[in-house]
Amino acid sequence: MHKTVAIQGIKGSFHHIVSQQYFKNEVDVIECPSFQDTVSALLNEQADVIVMAIENSIAGSIIPNYALIDANNLQVVGEYYLDVQHHLMALPNQSISDIMEVHSHPMALLQCAVFFKDYPHIKLVEAKDTADVAKHIQVNKSIGIAAIASDLAAETFSLNILNRSIQTIKHNETRFVIVQRYSEEINKESINKASIKFELEHKRGSLATVLNVLSDCKLNVTKIQSLPIIETPWKYAFFVDVTFAEYKDFEKANTILELMTTHIKVLGAYKNAKK
Ligand SMILES: O=C(O)C(=O)C[C@]1(C(=O)O)C=C[C@@H](O)C=C1
């Protein structure tokens, strides 16, 4: 079935690239100005699914996206790891000494921060998404402004690449999650990863005990992220990703965690995409 996918950003953005690669080009794309707007598009049924960046190997977690998934009771049904190569691009005939400002998505700017230490005269400006800046430069014929964006953005908006792969470390990956309103029928044979959320009593060893249960049930923790519980200052909710060989091991751990934690919920069970 042809799906409609909501992405933050426009065509040429990394979200667009993932939507094409994950769904093998068989999707219609709704371009949204913010992550909150992708969630609105899903909730009002304009979109069937969201492709949402959740963490990057250089810049870390996109914490507000954890909160969006949780607060709207959305379900993670898949994940995708993209090799992210950021290029500095501008109108043809511009050289790096002409560039006074570089605009890009905040996560892209974070991933390239070290590169700009050698260019202290360049002002870094946060923008909606990487491709949108490339488009603006082309449409407004902006002199002195460069974008940090993908090869696809440079090609789509006819910009010239001044420097390739300017992120701090060449091996740079962003993990995206595929999010829906409801979970799909689970084929327990092919599911080997899950994302859960829980809260704990503020007492010594409560998190350590949970981690021991996960280990005893043969679950491997791949990520742990805490988020503040805003109603109770300095109390945290834990978002944990686990991988496993057998779905029944995950079910067993979940049954035990239901007794040991509060507000536990499975944010999604899906196929591990990390090779
Ligand atoms: O601006 C884009 O092109 C995006 O798709 C956004 C985004 C992000 O949200 O992290 C996606 C991947 C890269 O890590 C940098 C930016």
From TrEMBL:
> Reaction catalysed?
prephenate + H(+) = 3-phenylpyruvate + CO2 + H2O
Q: Which PROSITE patterns match?
A: ACT (PS51671), PREPHENATE_DEHYDR_3 (PS51171)
What Pfam families does this protein's entry cite?
PDT
- Source superkingdom: Bacteria
Prephenate dehydratase domain span = 4-181
**ACT domain: residues covered:** 195-271
The record ties this protein, via Gene3D superfamilies, to: 3.30.70.260, Periplasmic binding protein-like II
CDD domains in the record, alphabetically?
ACT_CM-PDT (cd04905), PBP2_Ct-PDT_like (cd13631)
Question: Which key words are in the record?
Answer: Amino-acid biosynthesis, Aromatic amino acid biosynthesis, Lyase, Phenylalanine biosynthesis
- Enzyme Commission designation: 4.2.1.51
What is its pathway? Answer: Amino-acid biosynthesis; L-phenylalanine biosynthesis; phenylpyruvate from prephenate: step 1/1
What is the official name of this protein in its record? prephenate dehydratase
